[in-house]
Amino acid sequence: RKCIGVMTSGGDAQGMNGAVRAVVRSSIARGCRVFGIHEGYEGLLHPELIKEMDWISVRGWLSVGGTSIGTARCKDFYERPGRLIAARNLVKAGIDALIVIGGDGSLTGADKFRSEWPGLLSELVEKGELTEAETAPVQHLNIVGMVGSIDNDMAMTDATIGCYSSLQRICEAVDNIDSTALSHQRAFVIEVMGRHCGWLALMAGVSTGADFVFIPEKPFKDNWQEKMKEIIMKHRSLGKRKTIVIVAEGAHDESLNKITPEHVKTLLSNDLKLDTRITTLGHVQRGGLPSAYDRMLATLQGVEAVQAVLDATPETPSPVISITENKICRQPLMDAVAATQSVAVAIKNKDFDKAMSLRDAEFAE
Ligand code: ATP
C-alpha cells in the first residue's frame, strides 16, 4: 500500500489548500495512506510534524486561502545532514512518495533528495539508525512536483496555482483606486509582486487598462522616462482623467538599474505636474479566497499528481504537473526548473530577447 506525503513549501499561494485536499482525497480513493508534512521541509526534520490525514481532515479547504499545513523556508534541508534526518523520519513513517507543492527551489530540493535517497538509506543503516528491514519496503522515493506560486514564474506550465487569485486581488485593488483617481484626476503608481517575473504586472496592466507597465523581462531603453511621459500625456490629451502605472517589483531599465515607484512618481509629479500617489499592494496579493480557476487547477493537478505517483517507476524522472493549452500534463521536473532558472540568468546577462522567449506564449505576444 503506497504511502504518500504531501507538503507545501516556499511562499504561500491561494489554492495550495485545494491542492492538498485533492492529493489527500485522491490518495485515499486510490487505496493509499497519506500524510501531511507540516511547515514545509521543517516538517521532515520533526516527526511530530508528519501527521496522517483522512477524508474529513481537508473538509472545506477548497475555499480557504494560504496553506493550512503551513509552509516555511528550511535552512537545514539545503545540507545533506538535514536531508539524512528527513530520510530517517520518512522511512520511520513508511512514506515512499512525496508530493511537493512549491516553487522551483522546493522542487529542486525534492529532486536532490530523491537522487540521494539510496545513499542516505545506506548511511542510516550503517549508523544503526535504521534497520535493513525498515528500509527494504522503501528503496525508492517518488517525487512529484506541483507548482504553487502567485508569480506564475515557472517554465513549462501556463499557470501556477495561485497566480490567477493574485491577479484578481490586484485588479480589485486597482478598481478601488480608480474611483479616487478619477475623482481627483490623480496618477497612481502601483507596485506589484512577481520577483523576476513580470506576469502579474503585465496581466494586471492588460486587465485594468493601465497606462504603462514595467516588467523585468522587457525593460525599456534608457530613455524610458521620455517614452512614459509622452504616452501618459497622450492619454490625458484624449480626455483620460486618471493615470495608472504598474511597476513589477523586479522592474529595471536595460542597464539593470532598478525602476522604483518613487522614481516614477517623481517624474509624474515634477515633470507632468500630476497629483501622484504610490500604492504598494504587498501581501494583500497573497491573501483572500482562491479564485475559481485556482480551485479547479489545484484539484485537477492534485488528482494527476497522485496518478503520477502510482505510475512512477524507479527510472521515471520526477515529473512536475503542469497545465499546457488547457490540458493537465506532466513535464520533467528538472527541465522545468532549469528553464525557469535560465530566465533569471538571461535577465542578469541582459539578454532580454531570450528572457521573453523563455516565458509563456502570452508573454511573447
Ligand atoms: P518561492 O517561489 O515561493 O520562493 P521556492 O520553493 O522557490 O518558492 P525557496 O525558498 O527557494 O522557495 O525553497 C523553499 C525551501 O526548499 C528552502 O527553504 C529549502 O528548504 C528547500 N530548498 C530549496 N532549494 C534547495 C536545494 N537546492 N537543495 C535542497 N533544498 C532546497
UniProtKB/TrEMBL annotation:
Q: Where is the active site?
A: D151
Describe the location of the Phosphofructokinase domain by residue ranges: 4-309
Entry keyword set: Allosteric enzyme, ATP-binding, Cytoplasm, Glycolysis, Kinase, Magnesium, Metal-binding, Nucleotide-binding, Transferase
For region N-terminal catalytic PFK domain 1, the annotated ranges are 1-365
What subcellular locations does the record give? Answer: Cytoplasm
**Biological role:** Catalyzes the phosphorylation of D-fructose 6-phosphate to fructose 1,6-bisphosphate by ATP, the first committing step of glycolysis.
Which family does the UniProt entry place this protein in? Answer: Belongs to the phosphofructokinase type A (PFKA) family. ATP-dependent PFK group I subfamily. Eukaryotic two domain clade "E" sub-subfamily.
What name has this protein been given in UniProt?
ATP-dependent 6-phosphofructokinase
